[in-house]
Sequence to fold (311 residues):
Amino acid sequence: MEQRLARRQQHWWQRLVRDRAILLLALPGIAVIVVFQYLALGGNVIAFQDYQPYLGMGRSLWVGLENFAILFSGDPAFLGALRNTLVITLLQTVLVFPAPIVLALILHSLVSNRVRQLVQSVLYLPHFLSWVIVVAVFQQVLGGAGLLNNFLRARGWEPVDIIGNSDVFYALITSQVMWKDTGWATILFLAVLAGIDKSLYEASAVGGASRWRQTWHITLPGMRPIIIMLLILKLGDSLSVGFEQLILQQQAVGLGVSEVLDTYVYNQGVIGGYWGVAAAVGLVKGVLGLVLVLVANRVAHAFGEEGVYRA
Fold:
């Protein structure tokens, strides 16, 4: 037993020496994760304090669960932010999440690899643009003095108010997310499609299966594990619906439709100075995201799927 343990420790050290170059390359990324993801968790203590920046966490007064009272007091600003978050989450889950799946199926059906690579390159480009640029592009196209309204005025038609219209704000931000991230999100699905055994399609074609039946009975079942895993991860991040995208457009449409939990935390904490309340809301949001992941993963196991992890 001791010899086996010593041999295992020796093998561990040998692997460490062997992979030292890769481990050194990974150190900066590990340091970023540790500092900004794990050490930052200690800041959640201000959710239980009357936090004052000039006093710090060490000298700020403890107030227990007082900051969490806003979750149950019916505060209109919080309830409005919660409602907007849930509506945007629902729209992005129903419309944005399936978009890269459909796009990947379309790209995979292209016969010419050169055309496929060209289309993929064009679709990937918006992902590398910051939200500042994306919002500016939409304003230049759909704004009051944008290309669309200039086109309408040139023909004597009435301009349309899109950027500053709160009635179409949900549709606007959903289209922005789809334009920016759908192409990039197809990478995983295209990789899965490339790994499906081609002999399954050949056998089904010999049996007389149509293209639609091949997609339904071969392609989609082959993609199902990655779809379920990404959906579970999406649920965990569902209450975070794009802080930068929304904060850039709040002034145009107002807080009524653009205030979500992330912007509420910023406006209440950084701008309003209610640090403890903002931290409490952020902490509850994170806990709810964790619960959603655990529940969704358990449901996936109940249906025989791997999910994100298996205990």
User: Anything to note?
Assistant: The two ends are 28 Å apart (CA to CA). The mean pLDDT is 85. Strands lie at 49-50, 61-62. The first helix runs from residue 2 to 18.
